[in-house]
């Protein structure tokens, strides 16, 4: 599983002009807070609630990486090689089911597993896409990718909505709004990177695997990476939100004094005249 240098360069060219000015602005605000800006304060109550929401999301994402919550992997469950005869594989699956009866998803996969190509695509896109796609065929592997796009984007979109809520000015005020742009860009970048990785993945590499341990369980590995990075994004957002809300860092530089001097200067001159 990987992403090419061309993909990375394209992302840097697209997001670089947006991120660099923001990074410089945040660096200046961080330096101004270190030089002695506003005094440290307690976390405002609305920000406390936002931090609790972000913490809950982080915990949820990390818990979902546990094997118990992962979609079933038929090859790992039965400890079978990818070249196993289809009848033998599903006889083993039936032995693990209640009353030795295959589920509807099992039957759908059994109809797809008649060739090696479909099994390789199963490791790339997971069980639901292989079992439920009504128009996908192994002769057109990209059809599975197009069908899988909503499933790939859904967690990112849901997390983006959560970010928009906790950084809204009506909830967290100036402390949240200053991080909204960066958090939105980071969330979009995660989605773009995952789409790029799935699209460019060489699923044919598993065809050479002769043992279960040699298989690259791409779908399940990428799912865990997605959850970990979403938790990391929300954790970092919560951290910087806490720092800015308590005036420990990233405080806005004080401008009131200079603006007051500029506004009172002309009045003083008029009175002197």
Automatic annotation (TrEMBL):
Keywords: Membrane, Transmembrane, Transmembrane helix. The keyword Transmembrane applies. The chain crosses the membrane at residues 49-70, 182-204, 224-245. This is Uncharacterized protein. It comes from Bionectria ochroleuca (Gliocladium roseum).
């Amino acid at each position: 599983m990987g992403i090419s240098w061309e993909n990375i360069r394209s992302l840097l060219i697209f997001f670089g002009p947006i991120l660099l000015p923001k990074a410089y602005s945040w660096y200046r605000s961080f330096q101004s807070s270190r030089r002695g800006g506003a005094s440290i304060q307690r976390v405002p109550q609305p920000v406390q609630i936002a931090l609790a929401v972000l913490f809950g999301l982080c915990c949820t994402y990390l818990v979902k990486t546990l094997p118990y919550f992962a979609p079933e992997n038929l090859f790992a469950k039965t400890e079978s090689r990818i070249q196993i005869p289809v009848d033998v594989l599903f006889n083993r699956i039936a032995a693990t089911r209640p009353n030795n009866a295959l589920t509807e998803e099992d039957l759908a996969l059994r109809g797809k597993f008649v060739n090696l190509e479909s099994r390789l695509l199963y490791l790339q896109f997971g069980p639901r896409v292989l079992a439920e796609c009504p128009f996908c065929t192994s002769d057109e592997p990209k059809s599975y990718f197009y069908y899988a796009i909503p499933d790939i984007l859904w967690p990112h979109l849901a997390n983006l909505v959560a970010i928009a809520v906790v950084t809204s000015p009506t909830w967290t005020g100036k402390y949240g709004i200053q991080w909204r742009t960066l958090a939105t860009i980071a969330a979009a970048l995660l989605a773009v990177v995952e789409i790029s990785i799935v699209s460019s993945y060489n699923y044919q590499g598993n065809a050479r695997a002769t043992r279960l341990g040699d298989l690259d369980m791409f779908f399940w590995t990428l799912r865990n990476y997605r959850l970990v990075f979403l938790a990391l994004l929300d954790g970092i957002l919560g951290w910087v939100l806490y720092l800015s809300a308590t005036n420990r860092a990233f405080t806005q530089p004080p401008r009131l004094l200079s603006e007051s001097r500029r506004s009172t200067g002309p009045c003083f001159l008029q009175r002197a005249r």
